[in-house]
Design brief:
By secondary structure, chain A is of the alpha/beta class. Chain A has eleven helices and 13 strands. In chain A, strand 1 and strand 2 form a beta hairpin. In chain B, helix 10 crosses helix 13 (327-341), helix 10 runs parallel beside helix 14 (343-370) and helix 12 packs across helix 14. The relative contact order of chain B is 0.09. The chains are: A alpha/beta, B mainly alpha. Chains A and B meet through helix 3 and helix 5 of A and helix 1 and helix 11 of B.
């Protein structure tokens, strides 16, 4: 393995006919990181990952896997779980895991030993020699995940790894990802389930409509959303007017509770002090527990709104020109 | 190479572990044997039929009986010396048999005289019975099965009745069955013979003179012009001359049959991978050309396994029954097998098989990558199957004339070359033509492989389907940027 970053994408664009699936994407996955690749359906996540693996060629920009253009040698260090799951239905889990491990360079004996070890780890030993067609969907999915990491890859790319798994198996997969990370693997996984990303990731990349809308740490993501406190008042007290006078100008009423946005340089304590100073009949107070989902919705909505604005502007310009 | 081996190994094991493979392995030789024996069985199972002749006298009846006996005479001669009869050089047994027949012996008597008592001839197809009536009205119930005629084998349905009028009136052939025409053909032949005799008699030529003319008729010896270098083999056309043509037909058919049988494995295997969505996992583990090579090798190995098992099986069976085989039949078999083993036929045959397999295999592989279901594949396969039937028709043409101009012309169409080159080789076409056909076949195969890999990539990577086939033909030629695995 080289000392280069597992994955670097520079200004990558991919079009299918007139449709631009990925637009000007730059991405760097540093060694040893767990990076979440988030976005709604159709955001361009899978296309980006397929370009990262060299399955698709970008129309513009450059992709480097361990410092090289993706090739079969650099791919030997990569384990990949595609979004569209599929296995040879007549093969056994043991044979499949061994087969993919051998394709990645393992010897026959080592690959079989590794398959047994992984099947045991996932509690699938008794199904090791059954046909895939006899297994449940969840079991098959676990087998495919095991096949992607059987050769102990340095870099794991998992496309929607949690989809189709029940909560117990989702937790199992989270544990497995953490184990692989502890072993030293770099991990990039796509998902639209934010809780997994919150629990697992060092950093996240968010995509919307083929564009990257965020790239940074979780803290930076929460920072992008903006912080707020929730203050409960009684007797229909107008907190907005009172707080605006104290320098807290963005307030929203939700029943008896006000969401007070924290301006830059002010924290929750400042907001509480200001509320007390206004003489408001406070019934409750708590800092807003921001979730990645909110960040995601906010950023994606912004991106979609921006797209809509651009589209309207282009249309208007064309009309004018006509 | 390792990736190619691994892909080929997995696919090969997948194919040979399937029920279909074992069914094909066991049933094919059985069905081919049944197919080869079917005409014999059909002839043997044909019921003996009974006819009668209504005439004044027995001239026509005798002539017709003699015509019917000709078939058994021919079978008896071939049984006495198959190679000699085919080569036009019958042995002394056949000569003794012919002499006995000329002296008025029956077929069975002649066989006994020629020392062929061990030969069992089939019963005559048609047996004469005395007419149960003299008029059409009287005969009709017997023809319709309402009444039975007396025969050496007990009461039977009358198959045909032949009314031979006196004078110049037409002979009438009556039967309820209008599809079995062989007796009618014998009736025509008998009438021809009788007419000749009558006309000669009217001209004052006695039957004895006619018979003498028959016996003095010169034989026709078939010779083959050979170059001086091959003069030592003599000019007489023998089975050894014909064997390469038989062998070529057999090889061409075998190639056609194998391609037709095994390319389906490629189609089905690829459809399975597409419908199971395995392509992305594979393409991040193996280069696309290695993957295609592995798949083609796997099915080639399946074909070779089938051939190997059948050949070994044929040798085992042949060895077990060789003692029971007449020496003449053994010699015939040995001559044909020797012709197959000659490098002048075997080398083009092996090259044609490999190139033909790669050409058709790549096409089926590409088609499979576009289809999610067998039903989709069938829409694309129909024109291919129709195309694959053409070489079968050409094999039929080659059986009657291996040097037919249509074979020469069609052999230059790349998709037919693998089959037709084999058929042409025994006719010793000019060397430049053989080399030209081989070069063209190599070029065509490379072109097909290139196109097929593009189509495969479109199907496997981009998810293109049956509906996109038409659009591609305009887009395939300009190259696109290479992608990983390529």
């Amino acid at each position: 393995m080289t000392s280069s970053a597992p994955l670097e994408m520079e200004n990558v664009t991919k079009r299918f006919g007139f449709f631009t699936a990925v637009r000007d994407l730059s991405l760097n996955v540093p060694q040893g990181a767990i990076v979440g690749f988030l976005g709604p359906n159709g955001a361009g996540k899978s296309t980006s990952l397929r370009m990262a693996l060299g399955v698709l060629s970008p129309d513009e920009g450059e992709v480097r896997l361990f410092g090289e253009r993706p090739n079969i040698e650099s791919l030997r260090h990569v384990g990949f779980l595609p979004e569209e799951r599929g296995l040879y239905k007549k093969m056994s889990p043991r044979a499949i895991i061994s087969y993919f491990a051998r394709l990645k360079g393992m010897s026959a004996g080592e690959s079989r030993k590794r398959a047994d070890e992984l099947l045991e780890m996932m509690g699938l030993t008794e199904f090791g020699r059954s046909r895939i067609s006899k297994l449940s969907k969840g079991m098959s999915q676990k087998v495919q995940i095991l096949a992607s990491l059987a050769h102990r890859p340095d870099f794991l790319i998992l496309d929607e790894p949690f989809s189709g798994l029940d909560p117990v198996n989702q937790q199992g997969l989270e544990d497995l990802i953490i184990e692989e990370h502890k072993r030293g693997a770099t991990i990039l996984f796509s998902t639209h389930v934010m809780e997994h990303a919150e629990r697992l990731c060092d950093s996240i990349v968010m995509m919307a409509r083929g564009r990257k809308v965020f790239d940074g740490t979780l803290d930076e993501a929460f920072g992008a959303l903006g912080r707020a406190v929730l203050i409960g008042v009684s007797d229909g007290f107008d907190l907005d007017g009172a707080m605006t006078a104290k320098g807290f100008g963005e307030n929203e009423k939700h029943g008896d509770t006000w969401r007070v946005s924290l301006p830059s340089g002010r924290d929750a304590q400042d907001a509480l002090r200001a509320a007390i100073d206004t003489g408001a009949p406070i019934t409750s107070f708590r800092p807003e527990d921001a979730r990645l989902r909110d960040v995601f919705v906010s950023l994606v909505s912004d991106a979609e709104a921006e797209d809509l604005r651009q589209s309207l502007a282009t249309h208007a310009a064309k009309e004018e020109a006509a | 190479m390792r990736s190619i081996y691994l892909v080929a190994r997995r696919d090969y094991l997948g194919y040979v572990q399937a029920w279909g493979f074992w069914l094909g392995l066991l049933l094919t030789p059985i069905l081919m044997g049944v197919g080869m024996m079917a005409p014999t069985w059909a002839a043997a199972s044909q019921p003996t039929r009974y006819y009668t002749v209504i005439e004044s006298g027995t001239d026509f009846t005798d002539a017709l009986k003699a015509e019917i006996e000709e078939d058994r005479i021919s079978i008896a001669r071939t049984a006495l010396d198959p190679v000699g009869v085919l080569n036009g050089e019958p042995n002394e047994k056949v000569e003794a048999f012919d002499a006995a027949i000329d002296n008025g012996a029956t077929v069975d008597e002649a066989l006994a005289e020629a020392g062929g008592t061990s030969i069992e001839l089939p019963q005559a197809d048609f047996i004469y019975v005395d007419p149960p009536g003299r008029t059409e009205e009287a005969i009709q119930p017997y023809l319709l099965g309402e009444r039975a005629v007396d025969s050496p084998n007990g009461p039977q349905t009358l198959f045909a009745a032949i009314f031979v009028p006196e004078g110049d009136g037409d002979i009438e052939y009556w039967s309820e069955n209008i599809t079995a025409q062989s007796l009618l053909a014998k009736v025509r032949a008998a009438e021809r013979t009788l007419t000749e005799r009558r006309v000669f008699a009217e001209a004052g030529v006695s039957p004895r003179i006619l018979s003498e003319a028959e016996s003095r008729r010169r034989g026709i010896s078939e010779k083959r012009a050979r170059p001086a270098s091959a003069a030592a083999t003599g000019s007489q056309v023998t089975l050894a001359d014909r064997a390469p043509f038989f062998a070529a037909v057999m090889l061409a058919f075998l190639l056609w049959f194998l391609i037709f049988s095994v390319v389906n494995y490629l189609l089905m295997g690829t459809i399975e991978e597409r419908s199971n969505k395995i392509f992305d996992s594979l393409l991040t583990s193996v280069k696309l050309p290695d993957m295609l090579a592995g798949k083609l090798l796997a099915v080639l190995a399946v074909a070779l396994t089938l051939m190997g098992v059948w050949v070994i099986g044929a040798l085992v069976v042949g060895n077990a029954f060789s003692g029971a085989m007449p020496p003449e039949a053994r010699e015939m078999l040995f001559t044909v097998v020797s012709a197959i083993a000659k490098p002048s036929l075997l080398v083009p045959a092996v090259l044609s098989f490999i190139l033909g397999y790669l050409m058709y295999g790549a096409v089926f592989l590409a088609l499979g990558s576009l289809c999610d279901t067998i039903q989709e594949a069938q829409t694309l396969m129909t024109p291919l199957i129709v195309m694959l039937m053409v070489p079968m028709f050409m094999i039929v043409v080659a059986i009657s004339d291996a040097e037919s101009p249509i074979l020469s012309v069609m052999s230059w169409i790349p998709v037919f070359t693998p089959f037709l080159l084999i058929l042409r080789v025994p006719a010793q076409p000019p060397l430049w033509e053989v080399v030209g056909l081989l070069v063209m076949m190599v070029a065509a195969t490379l072109l097909v492989l290139w196109l097929a890999s593009r189509v495969y990539r479109a199907g496997a990577v981009h998810g293109a389907g049956v509906g996109d086939v038409g659009k591609w033909f305009t887009k395939l030629i300009p190259g696109k940027k290479g992608e990983a695995g390529s």
